[in-house]
């Protein structure tokens, strides 16, 4: 059944896996829906799964998105030729868009691999050659693990792991930014956050100032999502309290706890410079250590 090219065919125009010829002829959709019967395992090494590329369940729909719909997204291509390139960027840009289209998980892989070129395309053909006869199509999670395991360099993994180990919220970093960095970097060091409880503890331990004080007693009873949400609320409350303090400043003398109409200073002491020092928008630090931007004029 297999030809000299090493692939089995379902008819003259269709092969059981992605190939360079079929890509050029636009037969991608038919190819990936072949019988899955291959002539045997390739002698080339198959990518192995490692803990550095953890599985993160992706939420997809059940829609069979067409190739034309996918190409309209103008998602990035991935060649694998640059060792400093993180395949996660390709995955984020491609799979996120396909999830938004409610594409099915298996169909998402079919379309995403259409964007693989050069080294990555050759690698993917090798992966498919190494799969068992009649194997089910790769899911998006399986594809993600295989791609990252093979094309994410060891130096990048070490760098991201170190970055995650050292990650803490800084005074100029709000909770949303801290959460984004935490989620992205934790992918590369799953052994540091093996459970939900460990993830929550590490996130809370990295918070600044009164955010940590407010969160620490409650974190054992909260999920990661709830912890992030509560941290944002505490942060926003701190900003609101600072804003209320600003509104109590007198525009004449700059003192707190009274307004201009109640100022004990005579009008003759009114200093135009005092308004100029108060009116512009200023970035201030609240008691949590996060930066709040308020207009005091």
TrEMBL record:
Coiled coil: none annotated. The keyword Metal-binding applies. It holds the Pfam family Retrotrans_gag. Keywords: Metal-binding, Zinc, Zinc-finger. Residues 250-265 form the CCHC-type domain. PANTHER family: DNA DAMAGE-INDUCIBLE PROTEIN 1-LIKE, RETROTRANSPOSON GAG DOMAIN-CONTAINING PROTEIN. This is CCHC-type domain-containing protein.
């Amino acid at each position: 059944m297999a030809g000299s090219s090493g692939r089995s065919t379902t008819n003259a125009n269709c092969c059981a896996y992605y190939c360079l010829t079929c890509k050029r002829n636009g037969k991608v959709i038919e190819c990936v829906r072949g019988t899955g019967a291959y002539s045997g395992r390739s002698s080339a090494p198959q990518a192995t799964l490692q803990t550095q590329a953890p599985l993160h369940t992706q939420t997809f729909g059940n829609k069979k998105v067409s190739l034309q719909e996918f190409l309209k997204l103008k998602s990035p291509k991935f060649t694998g030729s640059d060792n400093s390139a993180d395949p996660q960027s390709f995955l984020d840009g491609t799979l996120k868009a396909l999830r938004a289209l409610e594409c099915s998980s298996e169909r998402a892989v079919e379309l995403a691999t259409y964007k693989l070129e050069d080294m990555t395309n050759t690698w993917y053909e090798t992966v498919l050659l190494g799969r068992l006869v009649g194997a089910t199509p790769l899911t998006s999670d399986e594809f993600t693990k295989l791609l990252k395991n093979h094309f994410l360099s060891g130096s990048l993994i070490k760098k991201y792991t170190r970055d995650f180990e050292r990650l803490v919220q800084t005074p100029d970093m709000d909770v949303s930014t801290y959460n984004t960095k935490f989620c992205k970097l934790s992918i590369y060091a799953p052994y540091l956050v093996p459970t939900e409880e460990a993830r929550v503890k590490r996130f809370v331990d990295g918070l600044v100032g009164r955010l940590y004080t407010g969160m620490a007693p409650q974190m054992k009873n909260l999920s990661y999502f709830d912890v992030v949400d509560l941290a944002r609320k505490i942060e926003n409350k701190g900003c609101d309290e600072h804003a209320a303090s600003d509104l109590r400043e007198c525009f004449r003398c700059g003192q707190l706890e009274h307004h201009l109409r109640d100022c004990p200073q005579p009008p003759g002491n009114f200093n135009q410079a005092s308004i100029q020092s108060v009116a512009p928008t200023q970035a201030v630090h609240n008691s949590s250590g996060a930066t709040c931007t308020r207009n005091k004029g």
